[in-house]
Specification:
This protein is mainly alpha-helical. The protein has eight helices and three strands, in the order αβββααααααα. The chain is elongated and about 60 Å long.
Length: about 180
């Protein structure tokens, strides 16, 4: 839905950018009167950055490293779709069969959007599965080194996986915010 909204906004000349939060995509917009503001299509609200950081598992480090809350370029928007395509293909044919395609997608994605955390995670997980299948010690060491480097880069961004309960709580807070703004019959 954010991509559709962005395409429509672009057509009418509105300034709109895709932005990322953990497990989520939202829009950042700007106008002369109000400055920057966020548009949340899930809850039909306009959450401020402070609410997103407080409720969305976003740390100062993840903002500084560029994995969350930054405005994305058109090329970076395409990278999001490329990684979604790789994940979908992986679900369809299985991780082992999809590995060559996933590797091409993540390499291309990280070439054009090095800070995209989902591309980094997909690359690291693909390397982990490849390492687990290795029977040759020299090849296993080589894959392990690449896997370790990938996970180290992820750790250095400040990324931490959001615990399932925290994500469920966040979704509930989105619903609560949405209900505040809905008209009651």
């Amino acid at each position: 839905m954010p991509f559709l909204y962005k395409m429509l906004a672009d057509e009418i000349g509105a300034q709109t950018w895709i932005s990322l939060a953990p497990n989520h995509i939202y829009l950042k917009q700007h106008n002369r009167k109000n400055g920057w503001y966020n548009t949340e299509l899930t809850s039909y609200t306009f959450p401020i950055d402070a609410w997103l950081t407080a409720s969305g598992y976003i740390s100062r480090e993840t903002i500084i490293s560029g994995i969350y809350m930054d405005t994305l370029s058109a090329k970076q928007n395409v990278v999001l779709c490329l990684v979604d395509l790789a994940k979908g293909y992986e679900r369809k044919v299985g991780p082992v069969a999809a590995e060559p395609f996933v590797n091409k997608c993540t390499d291309l994605a990280l070439q054009h959007f090095p800070h995209y955390i989902n591309a980094q995670l997909l690359q690291a997980e693909t390397l982990r599965r490849k390492f687990e299948r290795q029977t040759s010690k020299p090849k296993a060491q080589q894959v392990y080194a690449a896997m370790e480097a990938a996970y180290t880069r992820i750790f250095e961004t400040g990324y931490r996986e959001m615990p399932p309960q925290m994500y469920a709580d966040w979704l509930q807070s989105v619903t609560t915010e949405k209900q505040k703004y809905q008209k009651k019959p």
